[in-house]
Amino acid sequence: MAEETRSPVARYIRRRRYSPWDTSFHVVNYTLIALISFICIFPFVNTFANAFSSSHAIQAGKVVLWPVDFQIDAMKSVFWDDNVIRSLFVTIFVTVVGTAINMVFTILMAYPLSRRDLVGRKYFLNYMIFTMMFGGGLIPSYLLIKNLGMLNTLWAIMIPGAISAFNVIIMKSFFQNMPDELREAAIIDGCGNMRYLLRIVLPLSGAVMATIGLFYAVGHWNSYMGAVIMIDDPDLYTLQVRLRNILLLSQLDTSLEVMQQEGKLQVIEESLKAATAVFATVPILIVYPFLQKYFVKGSFLGSVKG
């Protein structure tokens, strides 16, 4: 009976018969993990609480981990700002189209590099790895985009990063782990290279494709520097650039400023900033749980062999 009343951790330690030193190590280890996890989660929780707290509670410093005097005026301000909504659709377009471009080019590069019979495979792989070590720099990249006529267009933030060498290596390693007998059987059945890739390889690569797709999608959603440098048209601002303007420059839609002056919305700057940060973060967080199992599985399977 006493055994059943013990905590799961205590029963586990008793079962394994850890020495005092092992027990101390586990206590310190779990304490550090809990502390680091809290430090990582606290900023987002605090931001979320500020987004749904009243102006008086925020100014009084009462908001820490949960909303105080719950209200949604700050979120209303964000949703009623036409510029923020426009930036949201721009970011969704960049994320969806950009990720599709990334996946197509990554697959078309990773599959040939996974074939041991590719002539010059070693040199192509070394050239690709070279790009991970050295880059052209900001000014040459800007001049290249300008000369290609993509300046001040959404293509300027999607095309330059169409291929990531790191992601190509992960996908190449996954393709290499597939048994050669599978390809030999496909050749006997009359499959060419492209048909074998589309009909056999890709359907078996759902885990690694979901992993790489998540990497690319998060990168596009959070992209900031490229949009700031390459785009001047306010109608093409991404959500992250719009968030920056609100956080640093306090740029609000004129209609919202009028509503605040008339007393229809009781929102202070700190609450508005928090609401905008939540608005920009939550959509990508919603996608992650659906891809988590593929993310973990793909990360391990893609790194078994080089």
UniProtKB/TrEMBL annotation:
It is a multi-pass membrane protein. It holds the Pfam family BPD_transp_1. Its main location: membrane. Keywords: Cell membrane, Membrane, Transmembrane, Transmembrane helix, Transport. Residues 88-291 form the ABC transmembrane type-1 domain. The chain crosses the membrane at residues 21-45, 88-111, 123-143, 155-175, 196-218, 274-291. InterPro entries: MetI-like, MetI-like_sf. It is found in: Cell membrane. Belongs to the binding-protein-dependent transport system permease family. PANTHER family: ABC TRANSPORTER PERMEASE PROTEIN MG189-RELATED-RELATED, POLYGALACTURONAN_RHAMNOGALACTURONAN TRANSPORT SYSTEM PERMEASE PROTEIN YTCP. This is Carbohydrate ABC transporter permease.
